[in-house]
Amino acid sequence: MNVHPTTAGMLLAGVLFVLGLISILVRRDIIFMLLSVEIMLNAAGLAFVVASSHWGTADGQVMFMFILAMAAAEVSVGLALILQLYHQLKTLDSDEASKMNG
Amino acid sequence: MLPALIPVIPFLSAFILMLGWKQLSRAAVAVIGCGSIALSAAVAIGIAAQFAANGEQAIQQHVWTWLQAGGFRAGVDFRMDALSVVFVLVITIVGFLIHVYAAGYMHDEPDYSRFFACMNLFVGAMLVLVMADNLLLLYFGWEGVGLCSYLLIGFWYKDPANGYAARKAFIVTRVGDTAMGIALFMLFQYTGTLHIQNILESATQLWSKGDPTITLIALLLLGGAVGKSAQLPLQTWLPDAMAGPTPVSALIHAATMVTAGVYLIARTHTLFELAPAAQTTTAVIGAITLVLAGFSALVQTDIKRVLAYSTVSQIGYMFLALGCGAWSAAVFHFVTHAFFKALLFMGAGAIIVALHHEQDMFKMGGLKKQLRAVYWVFLIGSASLAAIPFVTAGFYSKDQIIWLSWSAAGGHVGFWLAALLGALLTGMYTFRMFFLVFYGDIKTKVHHRPGNSMMIPLYILAVLSTVAGFIELPHTLGHVTLFSNWLLPVLPAVTVLQESAILEWTSQGLSALLALSGIGLAYAWVVIHPKGMVDFLEMPAILWFRGFWARGWDFDKLYDVLLVRPYVYLSRINKRDLVDKLYTGLAQLMQWCHHMLARTQSGLLRWYILGVVLGAVAILSVLIWRIYI
């Protein structure tokens, strides 16, 4: 089976994204949820890189640098929040943090 | 002199009495209350004298423009013509005498000032009613007297029964007032004005005789008159109105306010002449009412209720006269009735006070010796009410109506027979009352005799009840027509179909005979054979009729079943606001949606993410759908 490299890369990015999405929905542990977000971000980054190689431009790779920077910032904020959450609730279960319900 | 002064003076004094009811002493209240009416009577007499001397058609006065909108204009305008003058004189003079009497009668009342304030307000409103130049101002006075009637019937407001009677009077008359209001709207729609004289002038050009529109208008006006004057079918409020103090009964529910209906019909007589059906209805109502009320008066035990039913009956005579086209005869009977009925009411009041507020005639008796002065004036009043021939005013006025109810253009033999039956009943119930009160054994002791302030008005009214008749004598007896001549510029002379002295003699003779035999029957039953009377009255069939008549032919029960109970039933069903259900339902639906949406805010992060994902998928699907398909 002969698949075009762009198509293969895009499929991989899509599969990664969906895996991340599924795990964010099924996991209750908030650290895993953070990890899943990272996976989804990287899937998006992969799609950018594949696309940029397909068009032969550097735009997508520049965009991946932005994504990396943003992911780093997100992880630092996210980890701080998780620490606070654990400090407050003594658990990492996201379902426990449901006090703001209607 | 200014006609506007006549109603303004009582209004002013009512205002003063209302504001200063705590500061003023009793003497000051009495002086202000009676003095204002005396002043107003003096002005009225002055204007009447000027009127008679100058031979004018009418005295008019424009005070100010009340309402002006588009083509509609209603002013506070007063107009005094011959008819108004008669009413104004009776209202102020009889009103003054009743006020003087009330000053003595109400002397021990705590709310002395409130009483006189309401009485003065009433006189003012009544004067506005009879002097108004347009129907709107007349309606204002009309409602004003209704309000005062309500206030004064419920004067002793601490007893719930009095409040009930007051509300009943107000609501029942309101039925008639609504009809009258509709009549005013229709008159304005067709004639474009509410000015009485303009309406009367344009009516003859607008409508031919018997036109359905004018018939409807006249019937609606009649509805208003029927309510105010306590005629069938709205007569039920008057007997209950006796809950008020006796001077109120004398002034409002005998002499003046209840005759407002007579005034209204006489004032708009041109409209009634254009609507023969409405005029006949008036006569039929009068004839039926006078007989029904006569029977009811016959079996009452409360002295004031006898007089109340007799008032209904006598106003029935006036309506009968109006219906037959004998306009001036109706007004003449109003005048004499005002004198002798006020006299009888105040005489009854004197007796009631003397017996410590005892109103049951069967607990009175033998008062002839103890209350000699009251006995004589009461005799004169009763004689006038029963129409004893030649010497009483009541004879001349009632006899004229009886004769004209047959011979006038709108008359009928049936009306004549009803009027004769009424004459017999009047004699019976009047003297049944008289003999029960003054003859027989003493049952209740006299506590105190009425003072001068109560007796002097009675003497004056006793004189008036006798001499007032001589201003209008029938053809057969001297033929004096001072009164009808006086009214001739306003009210056309009656058309007599059968100008026959023999028939007139027969009618007069019969009515006199019936009145006298009524008195004779009353004497036989009450004085000679009280035992026989009791046996007769205890027979089951008679007992049933007595109860039926005493309850006023069960009209109260009928209205209770027909109107009151369905209304109460409906309001009970509607207690939870059926009409509002649609809107409360809408609000409830919104609240339900709100709860449903609030549930989705579970606080669970993963569900929110799912929501975001589903939303994103939905938007992307739509976009792809739009682009590729």
UniProtKB/TrEMBL annotation, chain A:
How does the protein associate with the membrane?
Multi-pass membrane protein
Query: Which top class of enzyme applies to this chain?
Result: translocase
Q: Where in the cell is it found?
A: Cell membrane; Membrane
Q: What is its main location?
A: membrane
Could you list the residue ranges that cross the membrane?
A: 6-26, 31-51, 63-83
- Would you indicate the residue range of the signal peptide? none
The reaction(s) this protein catalyses: a quinone + NADH + 5 H(+)(in) = a quinol + NAD(+) + 4 H(+)(out)
One MF term in the entry's GO annotations: NADH dehydrogenase (quinone) (non-electrogenic) activity
According to its record, what are the GO cellular component terms? NADH dehydrogenase complex; plasma membrane
Q: Which GO terms describe its biological process?
A: ATP synthesis coupled electron transport
- Check the record and name the InterPro entries matching this protein: NADH_UbQ_OxRdtase_chain4L/K, NUOK/Mnh_C1-like
Q: Does the keyword rRNA-binding apply?
A: no
What are the UniProt keywords, alphabetically?
A: Cell membrane, Membrane, NAD, Quinone, Translocase, Transmembrane, Transmembrane helix, Transport
A Pfam family of the record is Oxidored_q2
Does the record carry Transport as a key word? yes
What function does this protein fulfil?
NDH-1 shuttles electrons from NADH, via FMN and iron-sulfur (Fe-S) centers, to quinones in the respiratory chain. The immediate electron acceptor for the enzyme in this species is believed to be a menaquinone. Couples the redox reaction to proton translocation (for every two electrons transferred, four hydrogen ions are translocated across the cytoplasmic membrane), and thus conserves the redox energy in a proton gradient.
Q: Which NCBIfam families match?
A: PRK05715.1-1, PRK05715.1-2
UniProt lists the family membership as follows:
Belongs to the complex I subunit 4L family.
Quote the subunit structure annotation: NDH-1 is composed of 14 different subunits. Subunits NuoA, H, J, K, L, M, N constitute the membrane sector of the complex.
Q: What is this protein called?
A: NADH-quinone oxidoreductase subunit K
Q: Which organism is it from?
A: Chitinophaga niastensis
From TrEMBL, chain B:
GO CC entries: endomembrane system; membrane
Subcellular location, in the record's words? Endomembrane system; Membrane
Q: Does the keyword Transmembrane apply?
A: yes
Keywords, A to Z? Answer: Membrane, Transmembrane, Transmembrane helix
Superkingdom, natural source: Bacteria
Predominant location: membrane
Identify this protein by name: NADH dehydrogenase subunit L
